Amino acid sequence: MTEQLLHILAGLGLFFVGIKMLSKSLRAMAGGSLRKLARKMSANQWLAGFWGGVAGFATQSGRTTALIMASLVQGRIVEVRSSIPIVIWANFGCTLIVFAVVFPINFFVLFLLGVAGLAVAFEKPRNFLNVVTATFGLALMLYGLSMISAAASEFTEYSWFENSLDLMNKSFVLAFFIGLAVTVLAQSHMAIILITLAMTKSGLLDFEHAVMIIYGTHVGSSVITYLTGAHFKGRALQVVWAQILYNLVAVAIFLGLFFFEALCHSRLLHDLAMSLSDEINVQAALIAILMNLVTPLALMLTRKSFTGACERASPPSETENLSEPEYLQEELVESPVAGLMLCEKEQLRLLKRLPSYLGMLRIGEESPLVTPESYHQAYEVIARNILQFQSSLISHALSPDDTEWLINLQNRQELLNTIEASCFELCEELGKSSVNENVDVLGQQIIEALDTMILTAIAAIENNDDAECDMLDTMTSERGESMEQIRKRYLASAERVSASTRNQVLHITNVFERASWSLGRFSKLIRQAPQVK
């Protein structure tokens, strides 16, 4: 039994490493071509459902498809609303495996793991390294799941499993919970369904108890989906919740029908299955197929409510809300001039956020609802989108003036990155508790000075005003000498100032100087390009 547990642990390790590798590679691939392909696949809800069925059949797991789609959402490649039809129809696709067990994917996973692993190891082909790394991550996920399932299936050889069979035929409730528990143990509800169908064919289970086990496996699938997908946050976790709620809705519908039949002394489902096949295991398989056909159809008809339930289960994080671009749209790449104008507006929007960093450091102000870390993480996401957008504009035939404008915006973005990093660094440094009153005073002076310079830069862009640029030039040119004098004064009083205080003074003055120099250079770039009025 120890060996099986170690195999399950190893499988879990490979599974989570695969998810992390897949997610990281997908974020790196989140450029125009992949975004367009993924969005084309999910543009129409019924087309997305078709691809979901294909994905479910290929992975033999609605849960795996949900985790892959969660990675795509986390990588900002597809939207949650577009991914939900793929997730719910993947369950129908994977259920078709009960009629296609002669086509296992184990050899395909091993082939994929070997080929992709060699490509990653030798970094060939270099132009598609992100693609092969994502493929390798996917192969690791599937191989990890197969390891878990293979190791867990050996538990069926133990006597406690055989004894559970006798108990199952005595109670519908017990059969349901045993299906749930064994699914959690095996980490694969399809594996348990196939075992159940095999036992039904052998006469170990009757139709009703086999169906109750199948219902229990769906709840068990929700449990393991939550356990393996809980590391996602915000919108990505909504996709995981879509899979969890899918199983619960399916069980609620068919359990309700089961008990309704019991109250009415009817056998509607069984009679329907018997009309299609005389074999009891095929009848149970047909119920599994019907369950995963009716549920997606019902959820597609109530898609808005279902999506809303997923959103309530995992509201977007503050960072996700802040990291949504307001002006950038991929369609505008085809109109370079409009793209350049809106790219500039997106940069201005980021610049306008920077005073919020500094406002958090003012003594006497209330604690902000948004942390500096949330602002910083959101900034990095939008800055990456801006750079990708600018890179996509390069491929178009731009006029000489537009080319200069694009270069200007790229240079501005680099400086804006430095200014933002400086503001965040000051938040981290000045946010620490200080035992020196002079450092607190110096920190407040730096905050006010930097805030004034940033507001002047904002006014220069918004008003297209050279006078504001002149004022910013004057402010930034004087700061170097001021910081040098402050450093000399603190270093001269070494016997009265602790080493940690001296280091803090040197750090914050250096960061401020860097921000001041970047703002001075930023001012010069503002003068050189057309402005959005």
From TrEMBL:
Record localization? Cell membrane
Which processes are annotated in GO (biological process)?
A: sodium-dependent phosphate transport
- Record carries keyword Electron transport: no
Which membrane topology term applies here? Answer: Multi-pass membrane protein
Q: Which UniProt keywords apply?
A: Cell membrane, Membrane, Transmembrane, Transmembrane helix
Q: Which InterPro entries match?
A: Na/Pi_transpt (IPR003841)
Q: Which residues cross the membrane?
A: 6-23, 88-121, 128-152, 172-198, 210-232, 244-263, 284-302
Q: Does the keyword Secreted apply?
A: no
Instruction: Name one cellular component (GO) term.
Output: plasma membrane
Record-linked Pfam families: Na_Pi_cotrans
GO terms of molecular function: sodium:phosphate symporter activity
Q: What is this protein called?
A: Uncharacterized protein
Organism name: Cerasicoccus arenae
